[in-house]
Amino acid sequence: MTISTSDRRAITSHPIADVLAERWSPRSFDPTAEIADAQFTTLLEAARWAPSASNLQPVRFIAARRGTAEFDAIVDTLVGFNQVWAVRASALVVGIAVTAGPDGTPYRWAEYDLGQTIAHLSVQAHSDGLHVHQIGGFEPQALARHFGLADTLVAVSVTAIGTRGDAAALVEPYLSREVADRQRLPLDDLVLVFA
Predict the structure, then answer these.
(1) CATH match of 18-180 with 3.40.50.1370
(2) Where is pLDDT greater, at 11 or 122?
(3) Which InterPro entries would you find in this protein's record (predicted)?
(4) Domain segments of the chain as ranges
(5) How far is CA 15 from the centre of its chain?
(6) pTM of the full predicted structure?
(7) Helix axes 37-48, 110-127, angle to 10 degrees
């Protein structure tokens, strides 16, 4: 049985760019799809060109494709329920915030800048026919130990990247989440002041 997730366009209250309205975060990745060097590098290049406070660029990445020891090491740090589906992604990217400069000065906006880089990567991926799913459920200390990250390099997220697969391959509760209506809070709930 194949379950269609082809039309997942956001129903917005105001028009937004197609690349944003059509972007969504599947868990059903095609376990046979591969990501080529050039395509993977393009995603990281898009991330590199995200805005950065004072142009400090306090971000780093661990980028690994399925089939590598690095990919497997990242999967091992994922909380169990994320391992179930993320192992099928073509690649995983760990987003790392550089929290302080060489002289110890804190980089207050590091996590904000990192979020921008992953947003740019996500939009580029969608533009290139790929999908991403950002993951917060992982063990940052285990990941830091495995990759020898310094104390000022803080793993904030893991992003699964790949080609969408058949949702029927998912087990519950992931299947239900995959086909559920997309929802966001109303804009009026998010905007505190609009002058």
Answers:
(1) no
(2) 122
(3) Nitroreductase, Nitroreductase-like
(4) 18-180
(5) 24
(6) 0.90
(7) 140
